[in-house]
Batch of 2 targets.
Target 1
Amino acid sequence: MGETLSARKIKCYHCGDDCESFPIQHDGHSFCCMGCKSVYDILSQNNLCDYYNLESNPGIAIKNPVSKTKFNYLDDEQVLKKLIDFADDQIQKTTLFIPVMHCSSCIWLLENLYKLEKGIIQSRVNFLKKTVSITFKTQDTSLRKIVELLTALGYEPAINLNDIESQVKKSVNRKLSYQIGVAGFCFGNIMLLSFPEYFGLDEFTQHGFSKLFGYLNFILALPVFFFSAQDYFKNAYKGLRKNHISIDVPLALGILVLFLRSAVEVVSRTGIGYFDTMAGLVFFLLIGKWFQQKTFDTLSFERDYKSYFPVAVGVVINGKETTVPVSNLKIGDRILIRNNELIPADSILMNGDAHIDFSFVTGESAPVSKVCGEMIYAGGRQSGQTIELEVCKKVSQSYLTQLWNSEHFAKQNESKIQTFQQTVSRYFTIALIIIATGSAAFWLVVDPSLSINAFTSVLIIACPCALALSSPFALGTAMRILGRNKFYVKSPEVVEQIAKSQIIVFDKTGTITQPSESEIRFIGEDMTNEMKQNIVSLARNSVHPLSKKIVSFLNENIRIPISDFHEETGKGLHGKINGNEILLGSSSFVFNKNESTDEADLTTKVYVKVNNMIKGYFIFEHAYRKGLGDLIKNLKTNFDLYLLSGDNESERNKIHSIFGDHSKIFFKQSPLEKLKFIEDLQKQNKKVMMIGDGLNDAGALKASDLGISVSENTSHFSPASDVIMDASVFELTDKFITFSKDTTKVIRMSFVISLIYNFIGLSFAVQGNLSPLIAAVLMPLSSVSVIVFTTVATTLFSKKEKLK
Amino acid sequence: MSIIYLLLGCSLLMAIIFLVAFIWSVRSGQMDDDYTPSVRILFDDIENKNDSENEDKKTEEKT
């Protein structure tokens, strides 16, 4: 049966999903649901069917219809003010973040919005940032209309509390681009103007061009020195004031000496100086900085709860519903939460059937049923009918948000990472100054006229350009390779941090298990086809996730009419098919009071009872991620592994079989306990890597030396962390770690290479006869060879690990 | 050899023009997004093609 089904699988013309058994035929195409069909209608009426020609099945299925009142808050002046970038009497501009944007069809449709809504003047997509900037006429349309249009098309913009509460609009920092542009321009011209001197042209022409060229070089070097290189001086100064010798100190010293000595030579007409070396040095350094600056625009590594909370919520005031911004919620407010909406504050259930999905908080997706009067923590998502709640804590004081008040979120942890480069550059700088003063002192005795010359030459030639470039290029390349493999690191330094880790702590639910899937087994009598069909027909009538899972597990494509159907929410289903009474549900629902279940059960089970006979039960177990066993086996040899789970112990045996009998596994850990656990490990002077997913791991991820959050959909949810890893590459974790270690090896090797260059240069410099030509050759040669070596070596190591 | 002065002036002027062009392009945000324009440039073709197809149909209808 299953085979014939899969052979007949029909893809939805709009979204590409399987149409299952009842495709909707319309206009010569098949659709999986009314949502997809209606989007197709909108597009075809407006001659926008090119959308389907650019890519096949580009659409986004609208699985959860959005209530009409959802965007009420977009009529609120206060809210609007924050979302509009620019407004005058006639037009307004806004930028919306659309996480579902994924292909060129999306870009095309979003840039053709003006054909659908006449008030829109222009819409521009930035695909990397997944944003669309829309300019519209105030008179003809409103932000709310536009957002509703986008939502109707499946492109619901993500507007969250963070957009509203954040005060500063992010401005793009383009200073580095200008600095590189200016440095490149000056470098090229100074090189050209220096050639005549290198080739001794002046001896032929006798026109005194060298004087002119010297002064021109001087002028061209000014913007390099004062504009392009200014950050190195600033950083070196900042570092020195904190008694911290960073790589910027010898760099700044080198640039300064290069500039001053060259200026003196040009003005006193004793030579043409080293301006070309200086401009080249600054240019290469800035390129390195730029290379390292690569960021993953659409990912945010600093998210807190605000990025996920809704902007506004429906509040009942005097029997009427009004929309109130979440930040204005007060204790005692009555709020309405609809299907698929998030509960913004800890509150008490007053009315309605609550099935709360806490996957946002714990990674556990099976909804939890709550009864009236029960406390529901913020972060839960309602599935089912609308419920009414009374707020009992402010948003900022909720159980969940308290994590952010812990000290870990207050302190800046910049200094946490001590890179190899920083360690080396301290010794390097000290050695450099000793050699420079040493050679100056030596020449002071032998030939005082050469003393200053030797001192400055040492500082020039030993300027650790190649040294400063090796880290950015090795780490930058590694970061790009990891990013291609869906392992997104926050900054290049993180790669080094991965290599240093000694302990790995895993979260269970959602991290090593797959939240969307569970393994289902049926234990009991062998099921007849008829029984399967009966169960499926009954379960189809329920929206409960467990019913849906049973339907897809049994894979029966049939629907038999049911009489006498009723559902006790959160407990079970009852119905009659062909005269047989069938019950499907939890033990308390299925068993009579006198038949007690055998043991205190920790697993999720759904019992089947036909005509008062228990036929057996479905057992739901977490499905572990693919390749988990191999991954753990590989990691076990090099790391101490721990597992922290917020769940009960029902799966202890299974986990032991994966992690080994003596593994360190802890159950029923609260978010704060997890955080504490990480801290205790750190007190033993161990570098801890934490791999987690939900907001309940947020504290532990932040406290750990390296936090990796596993995310099913990287554009959706991930707590603040150093690395965001796509769940599909979880099994490659050990390869990523090995690759990071290899990258640090590359850095060490390239440090050796650059030190060799420094020794060659120094041998000239200490003798006091460093010619501008040697400096001009040595500096680019060392820089370029280090850049080539690091990028090639890092790429080769990634091939070794079979990374993309 | 005084022609060198002229050549020098010209070459510097050219280079400065390019520098200014670069700064302008950065300032107007052309360097901010290096992916979308590469996709966008292909759209016009499709649109034009369809427009011309439509026109063809129209002319066919007329005749």
Target 2
Amino acid sequence: MIDHSDDPSVERELDGNALGGLFESLFGGDMTAVPGRCAHCHTVNMVGAMRVYMGGPGAILRCPACDEVVLRVVKTAEATYVDARGAAYLRFVQRESDGV
Amino acid sequence: MANPIAWRIATVAGIRDETPNVRSFTLELPGWPSHRPGQHIDLRLTAEDGYSVERSYSIASEPERQDEVDITVERIVDGEVSPFLDDVVVAGDRLEVRGPIGGYFVWEAALGGPLMLVAGGSGVVPLMAMIRHRHRAGSQVPTRLLFSSRYADEIIYRDELDRLAAAGDGFEVIHTLTRSRPPGWTGYDRRIDDRMLAEVIEPLGVTARTYICGPTALVEVAANALVRLGLPPDRVRTERFGPTGT
């Protein structure tokens, strides 16, 4: 199970796997196996391994190494905003890959 | 090809109890694109006034089963979605789902082993998809599941795991019970710790592909311990759930 704390009023600590559906609807492919480099500590982790805090209007992805914010996702009625200033890069390989 | 991430309608084809608090739901999905073991679906419930809520549920079934998936859901007291699934949904009901989703927490027989699986409570669900797939695909890679539950009657899939372990194809299940043990219990009797992980991984060695799913605290303890034991961090895949600090 991914989603256990079935209570939106509690800040929920999950991981990037839980945002796979949202990201796929935005980016058109799987993002959980995409490596991203933290702009703060330069560690590379796959999006699925990043810590996710949900609650309020969006989600925050934090680096599992240094706990700094890598990505912020906010959904409004009209659009979804992705704030990626905490990511040095996200790496998409040419061939579809599961990153394994 | 249909957009795999589009919302679609699933029909509830069957419901069965796994433990007093956990139920499995079979969802009929004609034309479902085969999933990869470890992936999940998103489920969306919409009220008459338009309020909608989404939750992610790991797929429990193996991809060899066509046009249907099982999800296994633990009832969360005061939750928004799980009590609805538990109390209201009956066979024949229709639910909105999308997926399959995810490429990070995934294992397929072609990836090989050895395979080390670590589960806490209903964290066993995506691992069960891997175990069922391994069996159906005829894989014999050495595989060990270390499964932490609170009480014996809360062990999800217990009978099926015992049957699969008795098949003699290299799958073993090792239980630990953290709250109380029945008379004659021969498994572990404490929370997962470094020593337990060292003992369980020893026959597989440090090249094992490792998948850990459970509450955050368990995932952290297990992942850190296994990396300390010498497993390459990129072979230790994790999936966390649950509120902070529980």
